[in-house]
Design goal:
367 residues; alpha/beta; Rossmann fold; seven-stranded mixed sheet; 35% helix; 16% strand; globular
Amino acid sequence: MLIGVPKEIKSQESRVAITPEGVSEFTRQGHRVLIEKGAGIGSAISDEDYISQGGQIASSVEDLWAKAELILKVKEPIAAEYPRMRQGQILFTYLHLAASKECTDALISSGTTAIAYETVEINGQLPLLAPMSEVAGRMATQVGASALQKPHGGRGVLLGGVPGVAPGKVVVLGGGVAGLNSAVMALGLGADVTVIDRSIARLQYIDSLYRGAIKTLAASHHAIDQEIGKADLVVGAVLVHGAKAPMLVSNNQVKKMKQGSVLVDIAIDQGGCFADSQATTHADPTFKIHESIFYCVANMPGAVPVTSTYALTNATLPFALAIARHGWRSALSMDKGLAQGLNVHEGKIYYSAVAQSHNYECANLTL
């Protein structure tokens, strides 16, 4: 199979969907890998690094999209890429379609077979979303701590405090992979950390693992309202598999928060979990609502592409190899978890949460 790896063109996105090690695995199995010139530069991977492992540099991005049978990307296609998608081609990338009717409609119109990293599901877990959730969760505390500094418009709070001065209060909404990573980073800085989640079992796990150092609360409107009112930093890390994120914090609640407090919305890829959230970029990451600062960058891991690229491709490579080896239909037939990743095929939606988000019909896949 001919695999194509274009350069990511979303604003401030420097990750790439394959490493030289990945190219080596594909070529050893008899596949060809066509890579856009400079695709790996942002992740400290040169064209020569790819070539040394058997990769080929495409003559142009148009030629790459036209020839490749399987396109590997990191982020969802954007408007400039819509005309390049075509019927009979497989696209394997993050899609987050529940939050974007525009991209959903473009995939439907193209006839492309689109398999989403974030909905591949194994034993109730999301193995291809987890690495980036880990990165985003850890970054959320890092960027939140920075935004809290007075020169950045924040409240002027040091999360860890100092002897004789209370630490900052961090509230994390959602105790999944991203939320827990954010909480652990905040705990490491010495903050006062509370995780709110609707799963009692998850809260028991966190409490047991961290021996009460991370406080836990069962999710309710009242609990969220009370905790964010006392918070210096709120991290939104809720996830509903493949669906639009639930709205947990209203404009009125933000109005009652501390002046200079910070809200980081990790769920922005899925529409965000704060009522006032609007996707931002690394070039202009924050905005103010009332007297609070919002950080809503839709590709947070793109800020640390060397770490993120290798973490992501470690997880995606085995699935991509299976698609190349067997073809998408046989690969999905052999792996029911991978089959959960199919979002769009030949003009129809195959993932129910995406269909529901846009009031479209959901087709049933026959393998």
